[in-house]
Specification:
Blueprint lengths: L8 H10 L8 H21 L20 E5 L2 E5 L2 H23 L2 E2 L5 E4 L13 E4 L2 E4 L4 H14 L4 E3 L2
Antiparallel strand pairs: 1-2, 1-7, 3-4, 4-6, 5-6
Length: 167
Amino acid sequence: MAEQIRISSQTLNRLKALAMPYVDREPEDTLKRLLDQAEARDRRETCAPHDSSPRQDPIERIPRSRGAVVKIGSQHIQAASVRDLYEQALKYLVETHAKALSEITPFSTSRQRHLIAKGDRHPTGHKFVVPVTYKGYYMEAHKDYRNGIRHLEQLTKRLKLDFKYDG
Protein backbone atom coordinates (compact mmCIF):
# COMPACT_ATOMS: atom_id res chain seq x y z
CA MET A 1 0.00 0.00 0.00
CA ALA A 2 1.37 3.41 -0.95
CA GLU A 3 1.87 5.92 1.84
CA GLN A 4 2.02 9.68 1.52
CA ILE A 5 4.67 11.82 3.12
CA ARG A 6 4.92 15.59 3.33
CA ILE A 7 8.21 17.32 2.64
CA SER A 8 9.12 20.95 2.30
CA SER A 9 9.79 22.48 -1.10
CA GLN A 10 13.44 22.92 -0.04
CA THR A 11 13.75 19.19 0.64
CA LEU A 12 11.98 18.38 -2.62
CA ASN A 13 14.41 20.64 -4.51
CA ARG A 14 17.33 18.85 -2.86
CA LEU A 15 15.82 15.52 -3.87
CA LYS A 16 15.38 16.75 -7.45
CA ALA A 17 19.03 17.81 -7.52
CA LEU A 18 20.02 14.24 -6.66
CA ALA A 19 17.76 12.66 -9.27
CA MET A 20 19.48 10.96 -12.19
CA PRO A 21 17.92 11.83 -15.55
CA TYR A 22 16.61 8.81 -17.47
CA VAL A 23 17.08 6.62 -14.36
CA ASP A 24 14.93 8.19 -11.67
CA ARG A 25 11.45 8.78 -13.07
CA GLU A 26 9.66 9.45 -9.77
CA PRO A 27 10.80 10.87 -6.42
CA GLU A 28 10.49 7.34 -4.99
CA ASP A 29 13.09 6.10 -7.52
CA THR A 30 15.58 8.67 -6.23
CA LEU A 31 14.81 7.84 -2.61
CA LYS A 32 15.21 4.08 -3.22
CA ARG A 33 18.53 4.59 -5.00
CA LEU A 34 19.87 6.84 -2.21
CA LEU A 35 18.70 4.42 0.48
CA ASP A 36 20.32 1.50 -1.37
CA GLN A 37 23.60 3.45 -1.57
CA ALA A 38 23.46 4.33 2.14
CA GLU A 39 22.73 0.72 3.12
CA ALA A 40 25.56 -0.57 0.91
CA ARG A 41 27.93 1.98 2.44
CA ASP A 42 26.84 0.94 5.94
CA ARG A 43 27.42 -2.73 5.07
CA ARG A 44 30.92 -1.95 3.76
CA GLU A 45 31.75 0.01 6.90
CA THR A 46 30.36 -2.72 9.19
CA CYS A 47 32.26 -5.46 7.38
CA ALA A 48 35.57 -3.56 7.29
CA PRO A 49 38.32 -4.69 9.69
CA HIS A 50 38.61 -2.46 12.73
CA ASP A 51 42.24 -1.61 12.03
CA SER A 52 41.57 -0.03 8.65
CA SER A 53 39.00 2.37 7.31
CA PRO A 54 36.77 1.21 4.47
CA ARG A 55 37.95 2.10 1.01
CA GLN A 56 35.49 4.31 -0.74
CA ASP A 57 35.30 5.68 -4.20
CA PRO A 58 36.26 9.38 -3.82
CA ILE A 59 32.97 10.46 -5.32
CA GLU A 60 31.11 8.61 -2.54
CA ARG A 61 32.95 10.29 0.34
CA ILE A 62 31.30 12.90 2.49
CA PRO A 63 31.45 16.21 0.58
CA ARG A 64 33.02 18.25 3.36
CA SER A 65 35.81 15.70 3.78
CA ARG A 66 37.20 16.37 0.35
CA GLY A 67 37.41 18.77 -2.47
CA ALA A 68 37.51 17.96 -6.14
CA VAL A 69 40.27 17.88 -8.70
CA VAL A 70 39.29 17.96 -12.36
CA LYS A 71 40.92 18.69 -15.67
CA ILE A 72 38.95 20.54 -18.35
CA GLY A 73 40.87 20.68 -21.60
CA SER A 74 44.35 21.68 -20.42
CA GLN A 75 43.10 23.46 -17.27
CA HIS A 76 43.60 21.73 -13.91
CA ILE A 77 41.12 22.81 -11.23
CA GLN A 78 41.46 22.01 -7.56
CA ALA A 79 38.37 23.09 -5.64
CA ALA A 80 37.22 22.96 -2.03
CA SER A 81 33.49 22.81 -2.83
CA VAL A 82 31.05 22.48 -5.73
CA ARG A 83 30.65 26.26 -5.67
CA ASP A 84 34.43 26.74 -5.85
CA LEU A 85 34.64 24.18 -8.67
CA TYR A 86 31.94 25.94 -10.64
CA GLU A 87 33.45 29.39 -10.06
CA GLN A 88 36.80 28.25 -11.46
CA ALA A 89 35.26 26.25 -14.30
CA LEU A 90 32.93 29.07 -15.35
CA LYS A 91 35.74 31.61 -15.42
CA TYR A 92 37.90 29.25 -17.50
CA LEU A 93 35.08 28.43 -19.93
CA VAL A 94 34.05 32.06 -20.43
CA GLU A 95 37.64 33.23 -20.89
CA THR A 96 38.70 30.45 -23.27
CA HIS A 97 35.55 29.13 -24.96
CA ALA A 98 33.10 32.06 -24.90
CA LYS A 99 31.78 31.56 -28.43
CA ALA A 100 31.06 27.85 -28.01
CA LEU A 101 29.62 28.47 -24.56
CA SER A 102 27.25 31.16 -25.83
CA GLU A 103 26.01 28.77 -28.54
CA ILE A 104 24.87 26.14 -26.04
CA THR A 105 23.56 28.48 -23.33
CA PRO A 106 21.21 27.86 -21.62
CA PHE A 107 22.43 24.35 -20.85
CA SER A 108 19.92 22.29 -18.89
CA THR A 109 20.39 19.18 -16.80
CA SER A 110 16.65 18.45 -16.81
CA ARG A 111 13.41 20.08 -17.91
CA GLN A 112 13.34 21.89 -14.58
CA ARG A 113 16.95 22.98 -14.04
CA HIS A 114 19.62 24.86 -15.94
CA LEU A 115 23.27 24.24 -15.19
CA ILE A 116 24.31 27.41 -16.99
CA ALA A 117 22.28 30.31 -18.33
CA LYS A 118 22.47 34.02 -19.11
CA GLY A 119 20.13 34.73 -16.18
CA ASP A 120 19.66 33.41 -12.67
CA ARG A 121 16.44 31.49 -13.29
CA HIS A 122 15.63 27.87 -14.12
CA PRO A 123 13.16 26.97 -16.90
CA THR A 124 10.47 26.79 -14.19
CA GLY A 125 11.08 30.44 -13.31
CA HIS A 126 12.61 29.63 -9.92
CA LYS A 127 15.78 31.52 -9.05
CA PHE A 128 19.07 29.66 -8.80
CA VAL A 129 19.60 28.61 -5.19
CA VAL A 130 23.41 28.90 -5.22
CA PRO A 131 24.25 31.03 -8.25
CA VAL A 132 27.82 31.39 -9.45
CA THR A 133 28.27 34.32 -11.83
CA TYR A 134 30.94 35.51 -14.22
CA LYS A 135 30.62 38.05 -17.05
CA GLY A 136 26.89 37.62 -17.48
CA TYR A 137 26.79 33.83 -17.15
CA TYR A 138 25.16 32.06 -14.22
CA MET A 139 25.78 28.50 -13.02
CA GLU A 140 23.67 26.68 -10.45
CA ALA A 141 26.01 25.27 -7.79
CA HIS A 142 23.25 23.86 -5.57
CA LYS A 143 24.37 20.25 -6.04
CA ASP A 144 26.17 17.49 -4.26
CA TYR A 145 29.64 16.55 -5.53
CA ARG A 146 28.46 13.57 -7.53
CA ASN A 147 25.90 15.52 -9.53
CA GLY A 148 28.08 18.62 -9.67
CA ILE A 149 30.91 16.72 -11.30
CA ARG A 150 28.58 14.71 -13.54
CA HIS A 151 26.84 17.86 -14.78
CA LEU A 152 30.13 19.65 -15.38
CA GLU A 153 31.32 16.67 -17.39
CA GLN A 154 28.13 16.79 -19.50
CA LEU A 155 28.70 20.49 -20.17
CA THR A 156 32.35 20.04 -21.18
CA LYS A 157 31.50 17.14 -23.46
CA ARG A 158 28.87 19.31 -25.15
CA LEU A 159 31.62 21.91 -25.64
CA LYS A 160 33.79 19.13 -27.11
CA LEU A 161 36.37 19.51 -24.34
CA ASP A 162 38.21 16.71 -22.58
CA PHE A 163 37.14 16.20 -18.98
CA LYS A 164 38.86 14.14 -16.33
CA TYR A 165 37.86 13.72 -12.69
CA ASP A 166 40.92 13.04 -10.51
CA GLY A 167 39.21 12.85 -7.14
